[in-house]
C-alpha cells in the first residue's frame, strides 16, 4: 500500500482495522462527493429512509486523525 499522510489523514490507520464479511467500502478521493456517495449507498441499503445511525457513524473515515484509531476501529 502506498503511504500518504497529511495534517488530517494517515492511511497507516488501516493497519489495525479488521473488516467484517458484510462491510461495504465507499472509496472516493477527498472533496469529490464522498458524503454524497455514502448517502446514496445508505439509501440503497435502507430504501425506506430509516437509517440505523447517522452517515458518519455508519461510514467512518478510517484515515481521519481527529478521531482516535481504537475508537474508529
Would you kindly provide a brief summary of this structure?
The chain is mostly helical. It has helices at 34-45, 55-58, 69-72. Helix content is 27%, strand content 0%.
Describe the overall structure:
With 73 residues, the chain is mainly α. It is built from three helices and no strands. The chain has helices at 34-45, 55-58, 69-72. It is globular and about 40 Å long.
- The low-confidence parts are none
Beta strand %: under 5%
Shape: globular
* Mean pLDDT across residues: 89
SSE order: HHH
- Major sheet characteristics: none
- Which class of secondary structure composition applies to the elements? mainly alpha
Number of helices: 3
Helical coverage, percent range:
25-40%
What is the β-strand count?
Answer: 0
Cα radius of gyration in angstroms:
13 Å
How far the N terminus sits from the C terminus, by CA atoms, comes to 19 Å
Keywords:
73 residues, mainly alpha
What topology emerges from the helices and strands here?
Blueprint: H1 34-45, H2 55-58, H3 69-72
Amino acid at each position: 500500500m502506498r503511504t500518504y499522510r497529511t495534517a488530517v489523514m494517515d492511511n497507516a490507520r488501516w493497519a489495525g482495522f479488521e473488516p467484517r464479511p458484510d462491510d461495504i467500502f465507499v472509496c472516493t478521493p477527498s472533496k469529490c462527493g464522498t458524503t454524497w456517495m455514502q448517502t446514496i449507498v445508505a439509501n440503497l441499503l435502507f430504501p425506506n429512509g430509516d437509517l440505523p445511525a447517522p452517515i458518519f457513524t455508519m461510514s467512518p473515515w478510517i484515515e481521519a486523525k481527529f478521531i482516535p484509531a481504537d475508537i474508529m476501529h
